[in-house]
Amino acid sequence: MIQERLIRYIEQSIRQNWDIEALSNYKEKGYSYKEIAEKILKLHILFKGSGVKEGEKIALVGRNSANWCVTYLAVVTYGAVIVPILPDFKPDDLANIINHSDSRLLFADDKIYESIDITKMPEITGVLSLDDFKMVLSGNSTFKESFSSLEEKFSKAFSDLKKEEIKFSDISNDQLAVISYTSGTTGFSKGVMITHNSLAANVRYAQENMPLESGDPVVSFLPLAHTFGCAFEFLFPFTLGCHITILTKTPSPQILIQAFKEIKPRLILSVPLVVEKIYKKQLLSVISKPHMKILLAIPGINNILFRKIREKLTETFGGRFKEVVVGGAAFNADAEKFFKKIGFRFTVGYGMTECGPLISYASWDTTKPGASGRAVDTLEVTIDSPDPENIVGEIILRGENVMTGYYKNEKATREMIDEKGWMHTGDLGLIDKEGNIFIKGRSKSMILGPSGQNIYPEEIEAFINNKDYIAESVVISTDNKLIALVYPDYEMMKRDNISEDQLAGILDKTRNEVNGRLPEFMAVSKFRIHPEEFAKTPKRSIKRFLYTKE
After folding, report:
1. What is the DSSP pairing of strand 21-25 with strand 243-246?
2. Three-class SS state of 64
3. Do residues 64 and 246 make contact, with C-beta atoms less than 8 angstroms apart?
4. Domains and CATH numbers, the chain
5. Interatomic CA distance for residues 83 and 114, integer angstroms
6. CA–CA distance, 230 with 236 (Å, rounded to integer)
7. Per-residue pLDDT at 495 exceeds 80
8. What is the pTM for the complete model shown?
9. Residues of the chain above pLDDT 90, percent
10. Which of 214-228, 233-247, 343-357, 533-547 is predicted with the least confidence, judged by mean pLDDT?
11. Taking Cα atoms as reference points, which of 173, 532, 538, 231 lies closest to residue 356?
Protein backbone atom coordinates (compact mmCIF):
# COMPACT_ATOMS: atom_id res chain seq x y z
CA MET A 1 0.00 0.00 0.00
CA ILE A 2 1.15 3.52 -0.72
CA GLN A 3 1.09 6.14 2.01
CA GLU A 4 -0.88 8.75 0.08
CA ARG A 5 -4.69 8.69 0.33
CA LEU A 6 -7.28 10.03 -2.08
CA ILE A 7 -9.48 11.41 0.71
CA ARG A 8 -6.56 13.37 2.16
CA TYR A 9 -5.80 14.78 -1.32
CA ILE A 10 -9.41 15.96 -1.60
CA GLU A 11 -9.46 17.48 1.91
CA GLN A 12 -6.19 19.33 1.34
CA SER A 13 -7.28 20.76 -2.01
CA ILE A 14 -10.58 22.03 -0.57
CA ARG A 15 -8.82 23.74 2.34
CA GLN A 16 -6.09 25.29 0.16
CA ASN A 17 -8.41 26.51 -2.60
CA TRP A 18 -11.43 27.44 -0.47
CA ASP A 19 -12.67 30.50 -2.35
CA ILE A 20 -11.78 29.75 -5.96
CA GLU A 21 -14.02 28.14 -8.57
CA ALA A 22 -13.60 24.39 -8.85
CA LEU A 23 -16.31 22.87 -11.05
CA SER A 24 -18.62 24.41 -13.60
CA ASN A 25 -20.74 23.24 -16.48
CA TYR A 26 -19.80 24.89 -19.77
CA LYS A 27 -21.18 28.46 -19.97
CA GLU A 28 -22.67 28.22 -16.47
CA LYS A 29 -21.67 29.57 -13.07
CA GLY A 30 -19.89 26.90 -11.10
CA TYR A 31 -19.13 25.84 -7.54
CA SER A 32 -16.21 27.04 -5.44
CA TYR A 33 -14.23 24.55 -3.40
CA LYS A 34 -16.08 25.84 -0.31
CA GLU A 35 -19.49 25.27 -1.93
CA ILE A 36 -18.45 21.76 -2.91
CA ALA A 37 -17.41 21.07 0.69
CA GLU A 38 -20.86 22.19 1.88
CA LYS A 39 -22.61 19.90 -0.61
CA ILE A 40 -20.38 16.98 0.36
CA LEU A 41 -21.14 17.44 4.06
CA LYS A 42 -24.88 17.68 3.40
CA LEU A 43 -24.80 14.42 1.49
CA HIS A 44 -22.79 12.82 4.29
CA ILE A 45 -25.55 13.81 6.73
CA LEU A 46 -28.12 12.29 4.36
CA PHE A 47 -26.14 9.05 4.03
CA LYS A 48 -25.71 8.72 7.78
CA GLY A 49 -29.35 9.53 8.51
CA SER A 50 -30.44 6.97 5.92
CA GLY A 51 -28.38 4.26 7.57
CA VAL A 52 -25.75 3.98 4.82
CA LYS A 53 -22.59 2.39 6.21
CA GLU A 54 -19.01 2.52 4.98
CA GLY A 55 -18.52 0.02 2.19
CA GLU A 56 -22.13 0.08 1.01
CA LYS A 57 -22.83 0.91 -2.63
CA ILE A 58 -24.36 4.03 -4.14
CA ALA A 59 -25.12 4.12 -7.88
CA LEU A 60 -24.52 7.19 -10.04
CA VAL A 61 -25.85 7.43 -13.59
CA GLY A 62 -26.11 10.56 -15.67
CA ARG A 63 -24.42 12.81 -18.16
CA ASN A 64 -21.22 14.62 -17.23
CA SER A 65 -21.92 17.54 -14.90
CA ALA A 66 -20.65 19.42 -11.86
CA ASN A 67 -23.30 17.65 -9.76
CA TRP A 68 -22.05 14.30 -11.02
CA CYS A 69 -18.59 15.19 -9.71
CA VAL A 70 -19.95 16.43 -6.37
CA THR A 71 -21.84 13.16 -5.89
CA TYR A 72 -18.73 11.10 -6.67
CA LEU A 73 -16.68 13.11 -4.14
CA ALA A 74 -19.37 12.83 -1.47
CA VAL A 75 -19.60 9.05 -1.77
CA VAL A 76 -15.87 8.24 -1.76
CA THR A 77 -15.10 10.70 1.08
CA TYR A 78 -17.89 9.13 3.16
CA GLY A 79 -16.27 5.73 2.76
CA ALA A 80 -19.10 4.27 0.71
CA VAL A 81 -18.54 2.68 -2.71
CA ILE A 82 -19.46 4.69 -5.80
CA VAL A 83 -20.93 2.78 -8.75
CA PRO A 84 -20.64 5.15 -11.76
CA ILE A 85 -22.68 3.86 -14.68
CA LEU A 86 -22.55 5.11 -18.24
CA PRO A 87 -25.80 6.80 -19.29
CA ASP A 88 -25.58 5.01 -22.67
CA PHE A 89 -26.80 1.71 -21.25
CA LYS A 90 -30.37 0.70 -22.09
CA PRO A 91 -32.90 0.87 -19.22
CA ASP A 92 -32.96 -2.89 -18.63
CA ASP A 93 -29.16 -3.00 -18.59
CA LEU A 94 -29.09 -0.13 -16.10
CA ALA A 95 -31.46 -2.01 -13.82
CA ASN A 96 -29.35 -5.17 -14.09
CA ILE A 97 -26.13 -3.32 -13.24
CA ILE A 98 -27.71 -1.44 -10.31
CA ASN A 99 -29.10 -4.69 -8.92
CA HIS A 100 -25.85 -6.58 -9.50
CA SER A 101 -23.87 -3.90 -7.64
CA ASP A 102 -26.13 -4.16 -4.56
CA SER A 103 -26.56 -0.38 -4.58
CA ARG A 104 -28.79 1.12 -1.85
CA LEU A 105 -29.16 4.65 -3.20
CA LEU A 106 -29.34 6.02 -6.73
CA PHE A 107 -28.37 9.42 -8.13
CA ALA A 108 -29.72 9.91 -11.65
CA ASP A 109 -30.56 12.51 -14.27
CA ASP A 110 -34.28 13.20 -14.39
CA LYS A 111 -34.47 11.94 -18.00
CA ILE A 112 -32.69 8.72 -17.13
CA TYR A 113 -34.85 8.15 -14.07
CA GLU A 114 -37.96 8.59 -16.20
CA SER A 115 -36.74 5.89 -18.59
CA ILE A 116 -36.18 3.17 -15.97
CA ASP A 117 -38.56 0.98 -14.02
CA ILE A 118 -37.58 1.50 -10.38
CA THR A 119 -39.76 -1.46 -9.36
CA LYS A 120 -37.13 -3.69 -10.95
CA MET A 121 -34.59 -2.41 -8.37
CA PRO A 122 -35.95 -3.59 -5.04
CA GLU A 123 -32.81 -2.80 -3.03
CA ILE A 124 -32.89 0.93 -3.90
CA THR A 125 -34.25 2.81 -0.85
CA GLY A 126 -33.96 6.32 -2.26
CA VAL A 127 -33.36 8.26 -5.48
CA LEU A 128 -31.94 11.78 -5.78
CA SER A 129 -31.96 13.94 -8.89
CA LEU A 130 -28.57 14.87 -10.32
CA ASP A 131 -30.19 17.95 -11.82
CA ASP A 132 -30.90 19.66 -8.49
CA PHE A 133 -30.26 17.09 -5.70
CA LYS A 134 -34.00 16.92 -4.95
CA MET A 135 -35.53 13.70 -3.66
CA VAL A 136 -37.17 11.82 -6.52
CA LEU A 137 -38.19 8.66 -4.67
CA SER A 138 -38.26 7.54 -1.08
CA GLY A 139 -38.43 3.81 -0.59
CA ASN A 140 -38.74 4.03 3.19
CA SER A 141 -39.54 6.50 5.94
CA THR A 142 -35.90 6.67 7.16
CA PHE A 143 -34.64 8.11 3.89
CA LYS A 144 -37.58 10.51 3.61
CA GLU A 145 -37.10 11.82 7.14
CA SER A 146 -33.36 12.15 6.67
CA PHE A 147 -33.84 14.20 3.52
CA SER A 148 -36.55 16.47 4.99
CA SER A 149 -34.37 17.38 7.99
CA LEU A 150 -31.16 17.77 5.98
CA GLU A 151 -30.93 21.56 5.91
CA GLU A 152 -31.72 21.84 9.60
CA LYS A 153 -29.11 19.27 10.59
CA PHE A 154 -26.47 20.90 8.38
CA SER A 155 -27.11 24.38 9.80
CA LYS A 156 -26.88 23.00 13.33
CA ALA A 157 -23.65 21.09 12.68
CA PHE A 158 -21.93 23.73 10.51
CA SER A 159 -23.44 27.14 11.31
CA ASP A 160 -20.29 28.87 10.12
CA LEU A 161 -18.29 26.33 8.14
CA LYS A 162 -14.53 26.94 8.19
CA LYS A 163 -11.98 25.24 6.01
CA GLU A 164 -10.17 23.95 9.09
CA GLU A 165 -13.23 21.80 9.84
CA ILE A 166 -12.91 19.80 6.63
CA LYS A 167 -12.23 16.23 7.70
CA PHE A 168 -13.77 13.22 6.03
CA SER A 169 -13.59 9.45 6.42
CA ASP A 170 -10.49 7.64 7.72
CA ILE A 171 -11.25 4.55 5.65
CA SER A 172 -8.06 2.63 4.83
CA ASN A 173 -6.46 2.43 1.40
CA ASP A 174 -7.18 -1.27 0.99
CA GLN A 175 -10.94 -0.65 1.03
CA LEU A 176 -13.09 -0.62 -2.07
CA ALA A 177 -13.80 2.84 -3.53
CA VAL A 178 -15.35 2.21 -6.95
CA ILE A 179 -17.12 -0.53 -8.87
CA SER A 180 -16.71 0.46 -12.51
CA TYR A 181 -18.80 -1.49 -14.99
CA THR A 182 -16.91 -1.87 -18.25
CA SER A 183 -18.65 -1.63 -21.55
CA GLY A 184 -16.19 -4.16 -22.96
CA THR A 185 -15.01 -4.39 -26.55
CA THR A 186 -14.95 -8.18 -26.23
CA GLY A 187 -18.08 -9.01 -24.27
CA PHE A 188 -20.52 -8.04 -21.58
CA SER A 189 -20.04 -5.68 -18.67
CA LYS A 190 -18.13 -6.71 -15.56
CA GLY A 191 -17.84 -4.76 -12.32
CA VAL A 192 -14.20 -3.76 -11.83
CA MET A 193 -13.39 -3.34 -8.12
CA ILE A 194 -11.00 -0.40 -7.64
CA THR A 195 -9.59 0.42 -4.20
CA HIS A 196 -8.74 3.76 -2.62
CA ASN A 197 -5.11 2.69 -3.03
CA SER A 198 -5.46 2.45 -6.82
CA LEU A 199 -7.10 5.87 -7.10
CA ALA A 200 -4.49 7.45 -4.82
CA ALA A 201 -1.67 5.86 -6.85
CA ASN A 202 -3.09 7.28 -10.09
CA VAL A 203 -3.51 10.76 -8.60
CA ARG A 204 -0.07 10.76 -7.01
CA TYR A 205 1.61 9.72 -10.25
CA ALA A 206 -0.27 12.38 -12.21
CA GLN A 207 0.64 15.10 -9.71
CA GLU A 208 4.31 14.17 -9.90
CA ASN A 209 4.60 13.63 -13.65
CA MET A 210 1.94 15.47 -15.64
CA PRO A 211 2.23 19.19 -16.51
CA LEU A 212 -0.59 20.75 -14.51
CA GLU A 213 -0.56 23.29 -11.67
CA SER A 214 -2.99 24.80 -9.20
CA GLY A 215 -5.28 27.32 -10.90
CA ASP A 216 -4.85 25.86 -14.39
CA PRO A 217 -8.05 25.57 -16.47
CA VAL A 218 -9.13 22.12 -17.66
CA VAL A 219 -11.87 21.05 -20.08
CA SER A 220 -13.59 17.77 -19.22
CA PHE A 221 -15.34 16.08 -22.15
CA LEU A 222 -14.51 12.37 -21.82
CA PRO A 223 -17.12 10.16 -20.08
CA LEU A 224 -16.66 10.65 -16.33
CA ALA A 225 -18.18 7.24 -15.66
CA HIS A 226 -15.10 5.78 -17.32
CA THR A 227 -11.87 5.71 -15.31
CA PHE A 228 -9.75 7.61 -17.89
CA GLY A 229 -11.92 10.73 -17.86
CA CYS A 230 -12.69 10.42 -14.14
CA ALA A 231 -9.07 10.11 -13.01
CA PHE A 232 -7.38 12.66 -15.25
CA GLU A 233 -10.03 15.21 -16.21
CA PHE A 234 -11.57 15.32 -12.75
CA LEU A 235 -9.83 13.76 -9.72
CA PHE A 236 -6.26 14.74 -10.62
CA PRO A 237 -7.00 18.42 -11.49
CA PHE A 238 -9.42 18.71 -8.55
CA THR A 239 -6.75 17.61 -6.08
CA LEU A 240 -4.42 20.27 -7.51
CA GLY A 241 -6.89 23.15 -7.19
CA CYS A 242 -7.71 23.57 -10.88
CA HIS A 243 -10.90 24.94 -12.41
CA ILE A 244 -12.62 22.16 -14.35
CA THR A 245 -15.13 23.13 -17.02
CA ILE A 246 -17.42 20.24 -17.91
CA LEU A 247 -19.02 19.76 -21.30
CA THR A 248 -22.33 18.22 -20.29
CA LYS A 249 -23.07 16.61 -23.66
CA THR A 250 -20.89 14.56 -25.98
CA PRO A 251 -19.37 17.38 -28.02
CA SER A 252 -18.97 17.62 -31.75
CA PRO A 253 -15.44 18.52 -32.92
CA GLN A 254 -16.73 22.06 -33.63
CA ILE A 255 -18.08 22.56 -30.09
CA LEU A 256 -14.95 21.04 -28.60
CA ILE A 257 -12.68 23.35 -30.59
CA GLN A 258 -14.83 26.33 -29.56
CA ALA A 259 -14.56 25.34 -25.89
CA PHE A 260 -10.77 24.99 -26.20
CA LYS A 261 -10.62 28.45 -27.78
CA GLU A 262 -12.61 30.04 -24.95
CA ILE A 263 -11.16 28.20 -21.96
CA LYS A 264 -7.59 27.66 -23.20
CA PRO A 265 -6.92 24.53 -21.12
CA ARG A 266 -3.41 23.84 -19.87
CA LEU A 267 -3.63 20.05 -20.18
CA ILE A 268 -5.81 18.17 -22.66
CA LEU A 269 -6.87 14.55 -22.32
CA SER A 270 -8.26 12.99 -25.44
CA VAL A 271 -9.00 9.74 -27.21
CA PRO A 272 -7.43 8.98 -30.62
CA LEU A 273 -10.70 9.41 -32.52
CA VAL A 274 -10.93 13.13 -31.68
CA VAL A 275 -7.30 13.91 -32.58
CA GLU A 276 -7.41 11.76 -35.71
CA LYS A 277 -10.53 13.54 -36.96
CA ILE A 278 -8.78 16.90 -36.60
CA TYR A 279 -5.71 15.49 -38.38
CA LYS A 280 -7.76 14.05 -41.21
CA LYS A 281 -10.17 16.96 -41.68
CA GLN A 282 -7.78 19.88 -41.22
CA LEU A 283 -4.33 18.62 -42.15
CA LEU A 284 -4.31 15.48 -44.30
CA SER A 285 -6.15 17.03 -47.23
CA VAL A 286 -3.59 19.86 -47.30
CA ILE A 287 -0.34 17.91 -46.85
CA SER A 288 -1.42 15.25 -49.35
CA LYS A 289 -1.58 17.70 -52.28
CA PRO A 290 1.21 17.12 -54.83
CA HIS A 291 2.75 20.61 -54.52
CA MET A 292 2.75 20.36 -50.70
CA LYS A 293 4.51 17.00 -50.85
CA ILE A 294 7.22 18.62 -52.96
CA LEU A 295 7.59 21.62 -50.62
CA LEU A 296 7.63 19.39 -47.52
CA ALA A 297 10.55 17.47 -49.00
CA ILE A 298 12.75 20.58 -49.45
CA PRO A 299 15.06 21.25 -46.46
CA GLY A 300 14.56 24.70 -44.96
CA ILE A 301 11.21 25.26 -46.61
CA ASN A 302 9.74 22.22 -44.86
CA ASN A 303 10.80 23.58 -41.46
CA ILE A 304 8.89 26.80 -42.14
CA LEU A 305 5.81 24.84 -43.22
CA PHE A 306 6.07 22.49 -40.24
CA ARG A 307 6.15 25.49 -37.89
CA LYS A 308 3.07 27.06 -39.50
CA ILE A 309 1.16 23.76 -39.40
CA ARG A 310 2.15 23.26 -35.76
CA GLU A 311 1.00 26.77 -34.85
CA LYS A 312 -2.35 26.24 -36.57
CA LEU A 313 -2.84 22.89 -34.84
CA THR A 314 -1.83 24.34 -31.47
CA GLU A 315 -4.36 27.14 -31.88
CA THR A 316 -7.07 24.54 -32.60
CA PHE A 317 -6.52 23.17 -29.09
CA GLY A 318 -6.71 26.60 -27.44
CA GLY A 319 -3.10 27.67 -27.86
CA ARG A 320 -2.01 27.46 -24.18
CA PHE A 321 -1.81 23.74 -23.47
CA LYS A 322 1.36 22.20 -22.11
CA GLU A 323 0.58 18.75 -23.51
CA VAL A 324 -2.11 16.67 -25.21
CA VAL A 325 -2.34 13.18 -23.71
CA VAL A 326 -3.90 10.59 -26.02
CA GLY A 327 -5.15 7.36 -24.49
CA GLY A 328 -7.94 4.82 -24.41
CA ALA A 329 -7.25 3.15 -27.76
CA ALA A 330 -4.58 2.70 -30.43
CA PHE A 331 -3.43 5.89 -32.15
CA ASN A 332 -3.18 6.11 -35.93
CA ALA A 333 0.48 5.54 -36.85
CA ASP A 334 0.53 8.03 -39.76
CA ALA A 335 -1.00 10.79 -37.63
CA GLU A 336 1.45 10.10 -34.80
CA LYS A 337 4.42 10.18 -37.19
CA PHE A 338 3.37 13.51 -38.68
CA PHE A 339 2.69 15.11 -35.28
CA LYS A 340 6.17 14.05 -34.18
CA LYS A 341 7.67 15.51 -37.33
CA ILE A 342 6.13 18.95 -36.81
CA GLY A 343 7.00 19.03 -33.08
CA PHE A 344 3.44 19.00 -31.78
CA ARG A 345 3.31 18.60 -27.97
CA PHE A 346 1.46 15.32 -27.57
CA THR A 347 2.05 11.96 -25.98
CA VAL A 348 0.37 8.57 -26.00
CA GLY A 349 -0.46 6.78 -22.76
CA TYR A 350 -1.76 3.31 -21.99
CA GLY A 351 -4.31 2.24 -19.44
CA MET A 352 -7.18 -0.06 -18.52
CA THR A 353 -10.19 0.28 -16.27
CA GLU A 354 -8.73 -2.59 -14.22
CA CYS A 355 -5.78 -0.34 -13.27
CA GLY A 356 -7.79 2.71 -12.37
CA PRO A 357 -6.66 3.30 -15.26
CA LEU A 358 -3.01 4.28 -15.81
CA ILE A 359 -0.41 1.70 -16.83
CA SER A 360 2.18 3.75 -18.69
CA TYR A 361 3.00 7.32 -19.63
CA ALA A 362 5.90 9.52 -20.72
CA SER A 363 5.93 13.27 -21.30
CA TRP A 364 5.76 14.52 -24.88
CA ASP A 365 9.45 15.44 -24.96
CA THR A 366 10.70 12.10 -23.60
CA THR A 367 8.34 9.61 -25.23
CA LYS A 368 9.66 7.34 -27.96
CA PRO A 369 7.98 7.24 -31.40
CA GLY A 370 5.41 4.45 -31.58
CA ALA A 371 5.53 3.82 -27.82
CA SER A 372 2.84 4.28 -25.18
CA GLY A 373 5.17 5.54 -22.51
CA ARG A 374 6.89 3.67 -19.67
CA ALA A 375 5.30 1.84 -16.75
CA VAL A 376 4.16 3.96 -13.81
CA ASP A 377 6.17 3.58 -10.61
CA THR A 378 3.49 1.51 -8.85
CA LEU A 379 3.33 -1.23 -11.50
CA GLU A 380 5.62 -3.96 -12.76
CA VAL A 381 4.99 -4.48 -16.47
CA THR A 382 6.47 -7.18 -18.71
CA ILE A 383 5.77 -9.14 -21.90
CA ASP A 384 4.83 -12.82 -21.78
CA SER A 385 7.33 -13.70 -24.49
CA PRO A 386 10.71 -15.49 -24.78
CA ASP A 387 12.14 -12.25 -26.22
CA PRO A 388 10.07 -9.23 -25.03
CA GLU A 389 12.07 -6.80 -27.19
CA ASN A 390 11.54 -8.63 -30.47
CA ILE A 391 8.81 -11.27 -30.16
CA VAL A 392 5.28 -10.01 -29.58
CA GLY A 393 3.57 -11.36 -26.47
CA GLU A 394 0.79 -10.51 -24.06
CA ILE A 395 1.33 -7.50 -21.80
CA ILE A 396 1.07 -8.61 -18.17
CA LEU A 397 1.43 -6.54 -15.03
CA ARG A 398 1.05 -6.43 -11.25
CA GLY A 399 1.22 -3.82 -8.52
CA GLU A 400 -0.60 -1.14 -6.56
CA ASN A 401 -2.97 0.00 -9.30
CA VAL A 402 -4.44 -3.40 -10.12
CA MET A 403 -8.08 -4.09 -9.29
CA THR A 404 -8.97 -6.58 -6.57
CA GLY A 405 -11.15 -8.44 -9.07
CA TYR A 406 -14.55 -8.42 -10.75
CA TYR A 407 -17.50 -7.95 -8.40
CA LYS A 408 -19.27 -11.26 -7.72
CA ASN A 409 -17.44 -12.91 -10.63
CA GLU A 410 -14.60 -15.10 -9.32
CA LYS A 411 -14.34 -17.01 -12.59
CA ALA A 412 -13.63 -13.85 -14.63
CA THR A 413 -11.21 -12.67 -11.91
CA ARG A 414 -9.21 -15.93 -12.07
CA GLU A 415 -9.09 -15.67 -15.85
CA MET A 416 -7.67 -12.15 -15.58
CA ILE A 417 -5.29 -12.44 -12.61
CA ASP A 418 -3.16 -15.58 -12.22
CA GLU A 419 -2.00 -17.24 -9.02
CA LYS A 420 1.22 -15.17 -8.98
CA GLY A 421 -0.72 -11.90 -9.11
CA TRP A 422 -0.01 -11.12 -12.78
CA MET A 423 -2.92 -9.43 -14.54
CA HIS A 424 -3.26 -10.55 -18.15
CA THR A 425 -4.31 -7.51 -20.18
CA GLY A 426 -5.24 -9.25 -23.41
CA ASP A 427 -3.11 -6.65 -25.21
CA LEU A 428 -0.14 -7.66 -27.32
CA GLY A 429 3.10 -5.73 -27.41
CA LEU A 430 6.85 -5.34 -27.02
CA ILE A 431 8.99 -3.57 -24.43
CA ASP A 432 12.51 -2.21 -25.05
CA LYS A 433 15.52 -1.95 -22.72
CA GLU A 434 14.43 1.52 -21.55
CA GLY A 435 10.99 0.18 -20.58
CA ASN A 436 9.08 1.78 -23.47
CA ILE A 437 5.91 -0.18 -24.21
CA PHE A 438 4.84 -0.75 -27.83
CA ILE A 439 1.27 -2.00 -28.24
CA LYS A 440 0.62 -4.16 -31.29
CA GLY A 441 -3.03 -5.08 -30.84
CA ARG A 442 -5.53 -7.11 -28.87
CA SER A 443 -4.95 -10.82 -28.49
CA LYS A 444 -8.67 -11.41 -29.04
CA SER A 445 -8.67 -9.39 -32.26
CA MET A 446 -5.52 -11.00 -33.70
CA ILE A 447 -6.17 -12.95 -36.89
CA LEU A 448 -4.16 -16.02 -37.84
CA GLY A 449 -2.96 -15.74 -41.42
CA PRO A 450 -3.11 -18.56 -44.04
CA SER A 451 0.48 -19.59 -43.28
CA GLY A 452 0.28 -19.08 -39.53
CA GLN A 453 1.25 -15.39 -39.54
CA ASN A 454 -0.11 -13.14 -36.79
CA ILE A 455 -2.22 -10.37 -38.33
CA TYR A 456 -3.19 -7.34 -36.25
CA PRO A 457 -6.26 -5.80 -37.91
CA GLU A 458 -5.66 -2.45 -36.18
CA GLU A 459 -2.52 -1.99 -38.31
CA ILE A 460 -4.47 -2.46 -41.54
CA GLU A 461 -7.33 -0.25 -40.36
CA ALA A 462 -4.88 2.58 -39.68
CA PHE A 463 -4.02 2.69 -43.41
CA ILE A 464 -7.64 2.40 -44.51
CA ASN A 465 -8.98 5.10 -42.18
CA ASN A 466 -6.62 7.72 -43.59
CA LYS A 467 -8.11 7.42 -47.07
CA ASP A 468 -10.67 9.80 -48.55
CA TYR A 469 -14.37 9.01 -48.14
CA ILE A 470 -13.74 6.50 -45.32
CA ALA A 471 -14.78 7.43 -41.78
CA GLU A 472 -13.78 4.18 -40.07
CA SER A 473 -13.27 0.48 -40.72
CA VAL A 474 -13.11 -2.97 -39.15
CA VAL A 475 -11.02 -5.74 -40.68
CA ILE A 476 -12.37 -9.29 -40.19
CA SER A 477 -11.51 -12.75 -41.45
CA THR A 478 -14.03 -14.71 -43.53
CA ASP A 479 -13.12 -18.05 -45.16
CA ASN A 480 -9.43 -17.29 -44.54
CA LYS A 481 -9.75 -14.00 -46.42
CA LEU A 482 -9.46 -10.50 -44.97
CA ILE A 483 -12.55 -8.36 -45.45
CA ALA A 484 -12.68 -4.65 -44.53
CA LEU A 485 -16.04 -3.40 -43.30
CA VAL A 486 -16.03 0.28 -44.25
CA TYR A 487 -18.27 3.04 -42.93
CA PRO A 488 -18.18 5.84 -45.55
CA ASP A 489 -17.51 9.48 -44.73
CA TYR A 490 -20.85 10.71 -46.00
CA GLU A 491 -20.04 14.30 -45.09
CA MET A 492 -17.00 14.29 -47.38
CA MET A 493 -18.98 12.52 -50.12
CA LYS A 494 -21.66 15.21 -49.98
CA ARG A 495 -19.04 17.95 -50.07
CA ASP A 496 -17.39 16.49 -53.20
CA ASN A 497 -20.65 15.35 -54.87
CA ILE A 498 -19.63 11.69 -54.78
CA SER A 499 -22.50 9.28 -55.43
CA GLU A 500 -22.74 5.77 -53.96
CA ASP A 501 -22.12 4.34 -57.43
CA GLN A 502 -18.91 6.38 -57.72
CA LEU A 503 -17.89 5.32 -54.20
CA ALA A 504 -17.62 1.66 -55.23
CA GLY A 505 -14.95 2.46 -57.81
CA ILE A 506 -13.10 4.75 -55.40
CA LEU A 507 -13.05 2.07 -52.70
CA ASP A 508 -11.69 -0.52 -55.12
CA LYS A 509 -8.83 1.85 -56.01
CA THR A 510 -8.30 2.57 -52.30
CA ARG A 511 -8.08 -1.16 -51.54
CA ASN A 512 -5.30 -1.56 -54.12
CA GLU A 513 -3.42 1.41 -52.62
CA VAL A 514 -3.71 -0.03 -49.11
CA ASN A 515 -2.57 -3.47 -50.23
CA GLY A 516 0.42 -1.85 -51.91
CA ARG A 517 1.64 -0.74 -48.47
CA LEU A 518 1.09 -4.11 -46.79
CA PRO A 519 2.79 -7.53 -46.85
CA GLU A 520 1.03 -10.00 -49.12
CA PHE A 521 -0.36 -12.06 -46.22
CA MET A 522 -2.10 -8.90 -44.89
CA ALA A 523 -3.75 -8.01 -48.20
CA VAL A 524 -7.46 -7.17 -48.02
CA SER A 525 -9.52 -9.13 -50.55
CA LYS A 526 -12.66 -7.00 -50.39
CA PHE A 527 -14.12 -3.75 -49.05
CA ARG A 528 -17.69 -4.14 -47.82
CA ILE A 529 -19.72 -1.01 -47.08
CA HIS A 530 -21.13 -0.86 -43.56
CA PRO A 531 -24.20 1.42 -43.68
CA GLU A 532 -23.92 2.94 -40.18
CA GLU A 533 -21.30 4.03 -37.67
CA PHE A 534 -19.76 1.14 -35.71
CA ALA A 535 -20.89 0.70 -32.11
CA LYS A 536 -18.31 1.98 -29.64
CA THR A 537 -17.27 1.87 -26.03
CA PRO A 538 -16.96 5.08 -23.98
CA LYS A 539 -13.27 5.15 -24.89
CA ARG A 540 -14.43 5.32 -28.53
CA SER A 541 -13.02 1.89 -29.27
CA ILE A 542 -15.09 -0.09 -31.74
CA LYS A 543 -16.96 -3.01 -30.19
CA ARG A 544 -15.14 -5.38 -32.49
CA PHE A 545 -16.80 -8.51 -31.14
CA LEU A 546 -20.09 -7.38 -32.72
CA TYR A 547 -18.65 -7.59 -36.23
CA THR A 548 -16.12 -10.41 -36.25
CA LYS A 549 -18.75 -13.01 -37.02
CA GLU A 550 -20.27 -11.20 -39.98
Report:
1. parallel
2. coil
3. yes
4. 6-246 (3.40.50.980), 254-401+415-442 (3.40.50.12780), 447-546 (3.30.300.30)
5. 19
6. 9
7. yes
8. 0.83
9. 69
10. 533-547
11. 231
